[in-house]
Design brief:
The protein is globular, with a radius of gyration of 19 Å. The chain contains 6 helices and no strands. The chain is 79% helix and 0% strand. It has 197 residues and is mostly helical.
């Protein structure tokens, strides 16, 4: 049985494939603009339906579990790629992307309604420990968005046999390392906000 493809879909895929870096940067700019619009309170919380307080209170704990799980999945995905298990690698990285997407939706929803969580500990710890960790976490998260997006665009527009001829592996190593560290630092930030103090 032969399968036919839509010529329009083929043209779009070919255009995205040819301009993978530009498409990745454009998608990243849109995603980061949305994140910063919510974080800087340009999106009014009143425009969103409000979940019950118990749900809002649970989001940080759920997100910590999502971040920890995503870090494990990213590390496992890298190990799978090193073993040549590319189908499993692809599934793992798509799972990590899905977990990140879920985290981001929950995080932005809560921030839009309640604002960023205040640090409850001592001022000295806030300045000397919490803020530096948060700054590294946020910086890495911002850097990861275009890197991860680029690697995903390459992976979805090329076959496994074609990927070695692209920057996928080289950029993917950096992206995966930074992404895993970002997830781990997210758990550290959570612990400082909700467990330590």
């Amino acid at each position: 049985m032969t399968t036919t493809t839509d010529p329009t879909t083929d043209r779009v895929r070919a255009a995205v494939r040819e301009h993978a870096l530009s498409v990745s940067l454009a998608l990243s700019a849109v995603a980061l603009a949305l994140v910063f619009a919510v974080a800087l309170e340009f999106v009014p919380g009143g425009a969103l339906p409000r979940a019950p307080d118990a749900v809002l209170d649970a989001i940080p704990h759920v997100n910590a579990a999502i971040s920890a799980s995503a870090a494990v999945v990213v590390v496992a995905g890298v190990a799978l790629a090193r073993r040549g298990a590319y189908d499993h690698h692809r599934r793992a990285m798509l799972l990590a992307t899905g977990l990140f997407g879920l985290f981001l939706v929950l995080y932005l929803y809560r921030v839009a309604l309640l604002g960023p969580a205040p640090f409850p500990g001592p001022e000295s710890v806030y300045r000397s420990v919490y803020l530096p960790i948060l700054a590294v976490h946020v910086t890495l998260a911002v850097v990861c968005v275009p890197l991860v997006t680029y690697v995903l665009v390459l992976a979805t527009t090329h076959t496994v046999a074609e990927l070695p001829d692209t920057p996928h592996e080289r950029v993917g190593r950096v992206a995966a390392s930074l992404w895993a560290v970002t997830f781990v630092l997210g758990v550290v930030v959570y612990a400082m906000l909700y467990a330590v103090y």
